[in-house]
Amino acid sequence: MTAFQSRGLFIAGLLIGLSVLFVIGGSAIPLTQAGMIYLAAAAFLFAPMRQHYTGWPGILLGLLILAMIVLTWIVHSSRVAGAAGWDFWLKAIGLWLAAWMMVDMIANAGNGRRASRWRNLAPMILFGVTLLLLWEWLVVGFGISPIILLPPSAIGQAVVAQANTLATDFVWTFLHEVLLGWLIGSGSGFLVALVADRVPFLRRGLLPLGNVVSALPIVGIAPIMIWWFTYDWPSKTAVVVAMTFFPMLVNTVAGLAASGSLERDLMRSYGASYWSTLVSLRLPAAMPFIFNGLKINSTLAMIGAIVAEYFDGPTIGMGFRINTQAALSQTDIVWAEIAVAMVAGSLFYGLIAVIERAVTFWHPSYRRA
Fold first, then answer.
1. Which helix (H) or strand (E) holds 99?
2. Cα(123)–Cα(105) distance, integer angstroms
3. Among candidates 132, 9, 126, which has minimal Cα distance to 58?
4. Under 8 Å between Cβ of 181 and 240
5. Which partner for 158 in 38, 254, 332, 352 could form a disulfide, CB atoms 3.0-4.6 Å apart?
6. DSSP letter at 28?
């Protein structure tokens, strides 16, 4: 018996055990509520047949999504919301185990380039959806106060209701502060790294200074930047520049030193100048390090801009909105701003990762077996 079949039998045994517990406890669950959940999980018993049916993972994924929708409908019913019992949580556990099996099946199904993309994306998407649904079930099932935590459905409703305000805050924070500060900080860090690579004394002096500046708290830098660059967006951009400069500097310097000694000796044997060696050998070898700095800075820039807006400034921006609405206990708007910031930061990071994949396609980490 394969490991996959063993896991399938384990889930089947668990579901049978849950059914027995439901009957013994006098709370047999109607088919309309639990039927799809059992159907989705029991289908994994036939996992060994997946090599005979190319659409098998897709069929199971559809059943799993339908089961999740059914359980979400159950938790929002008046009988379960705020008073979910052990029978509901056992169903949720069984469904979570079915989702785990689905991720394993997708990751091991199919061949070829398109199948590889499916295996890379589908488990990630399914895991994210399952995590959001688990959040929804816990908050609604236990009846947690909105002051403490909101379910994802309520956050989505707040995003739709406050779309104009969120769009205005996003444009102000992301375009004026995050993107501009990221460009200036990363660009200046890259240029200074080229100079430091040429001047060893400057490199030995800047790198320890970078460690010191990186340890400075944002809440200590932000007020000083406000004094220097006024209360408008330039002060928040300056905070982002200060946070992104040294990570880019350190990564670029490390990347420029990453090329092998044999390759450098070969360039010297060809009589290549410093700049020819830099462009043809050292910069391409440093690209993974440079993109690593860019990806780190994409998250630091978003964090720095939002925290900097907590201090005095214009009555606009994501950080300003989070700070003021939290003081007024408007948790729906606070969570909506957090959701927009999370999505924007993730897309920004993902865009850089896609560009990195196109530029550093030759790197061993991207080679296919």
1. helix 86-107
2. 9
3. 126
4. yes
5. 332
6. P
Classify residue 178 by its DSSP letter: I
Q: Which helix (H) or strand (E) holds 253?
A: helix 233-256
Is 311 within 8 Å of 322 (Cβ atoms)? Answer: no
Confidence of residue 206 (pLDDT cuts 50, 70, 90): confident
Q: From the DSSP assignment, how many helices (H) and strands (E) are in the chain? A: 16, 0
Q: Phi then psi for 180, rounded to 5 degrees?
A: -65, -45
CA dist 21 and 307 (Å) reads 50
Gap between the Cα atoms of 106 and 123, Å rounded: 7
What confidence score (pLDDT) does residue 365 get? 65
| 257 contact partners, CB below 8 Å, separation of at least 6 | 197
Nearest-CA neighbor of 169 among 340, 346, 349? 340
- In this predicted model, what pLDDT tens digit does every residue of 57-72 receive, in sequence order? 556 666 667 777 777 8
Residue 320's closest CA among 246, 215, 250, 235?
Answer: 235
Which one has a higher pLDDT value, 30 or 259?
259
Residue 181 in contact with residue 237, Cβ under 8 Å? yes
pLDDT over 90 (residue 225): no
Residue 219 carries which DSSP code? H
Give the largest Cα separation in the chain, rounded: 86
Q: Are 344 and 174 in contact (CB under 8 A)?
A: yes
Domain boundaries, the chain: 3-144, 160-366
Q: How confident is the model over 245-294, as pLDDT tens digits? A: 988 998 998 888 877 677 777 777 777 777 887 777 888 888 999 999 99
Q: How many Å apart are CA 147 and CA 137, to the nearest integer?
A: 17
Between the alpha carbon of residue 103 and those of residues 123, 125, 149, 220, 287, the distances in Å are: 5, 10, 28, 44, 33
Mapped onto helix, strand or coil, the DSSP state of residue 3 is: helix
- List, for residues 104-121, the tens digit of each pLDDT value: 666 665 555 555 565 667
Q: Please give the Cα distance from 318 to 324 (Å, whole number).
A: 10
